[in-house]
Design a protein that fits this description.
This protein is 37% helix and 23% strand. α2 links the parallel β2 and β3. The protein folds into two domains: 57 residues, Rossmann fold, CATH 3.40.50.2300; 122 residues, Beta-Lactamase (2-Layer Sandwich). The protein is α/β, with parallel strands linked by helices.
């Protein structure tokens, strides 16, 4: 199953209940929730509980639905790629480096303090970083502009360091100053005892506001 489109209004249980049931049972399939309510608070709650998107029925077009489905599937593909990277991190550093050179995803591997350990070639090309040595052991949050975007990046790191997944959308320009908007997920890499030992920041370019 690649995608679920869930109506928020059910006779017995609402969409929030069903979404939580899916997530608590371990299902990671993207879920789009549509509803007759155009409620920003409800949208935030649904996204916090794992919805990929919130779609008010009023004014919903086939184009808007198509874009939402496309983004959800791309994000899912990126998350699967991040999972593969996490598995690779348990192997040798040299193997990790080779895998990151081959992936088409923008991936940054961080220590628990948020310092850059590895960066995929795709990420370096988008950020116009010719060589990893330019940012190696540098703070990842320093790549984000001061203000709300850096704060969002820092909060995502804190979440991952505590074992959760930190997510945000922010402006992270290239070294030449080209404005790049990213949807970012920072995921903890757990050791054999289930404690975070590293973090993986996975970024996907999205249209700016």
């Amino acid at each position: 199953m690649d995608l679920v489109i869930l109506d928020y209004n059910f006779p017995k249980h609402d969409g929030m209940f069903l979404l939580r049931e899916l997530r608590e049972s371990g299902h990671t399939t993207p879920v789009l929730v549509w509803t007759g309510q155009d409620d920003s608070g409800l949208a935030v709650d649904l996204m916090k509980n794992g919805a990929a998107d919130f779609l008010p029925k009023a004014g919903l077009t086939s184009q808007r639905l198509s874009v939402s489905i496309r983004h959800a599937l791309r994000r899912r593909a990126s998350e699967l790629a991040a999972g593969a990277v996490q598995e690779a991190l348990r192997a040798s550093d040299e193997l990790n480096r080779r895998i990151l050179e081959c992936t088409h995803e923008s991936v940054v591997v961080l220590d628990l303090a948020g310092h850059i350990l590895l960066m995929s070639r795709a990420a370096r090309e988008l950020l116009e970083i010719p060589d990893l040595s330019l940012v190696h052991h540098r703070g990842w949050v320093d790549l984000w502009p001061e203000g709300e975007h850096r704060t969002a990046a820092r909060n995502a790191l804190l979440s991952a360091a505590q074992g959760a997944v930190g997510r945000f959308v922010g402006l992270g320009p290239s070294l030449s100053g080209a404005p790049l908007w990213w949807r970012v997920a920072v995921t903890p890499v757990l050791d054999a005892d289930g404690k975070p030992e590293r973090m993986v920041a996975l970024g996907m370019l999205v249209p700016g506001p």
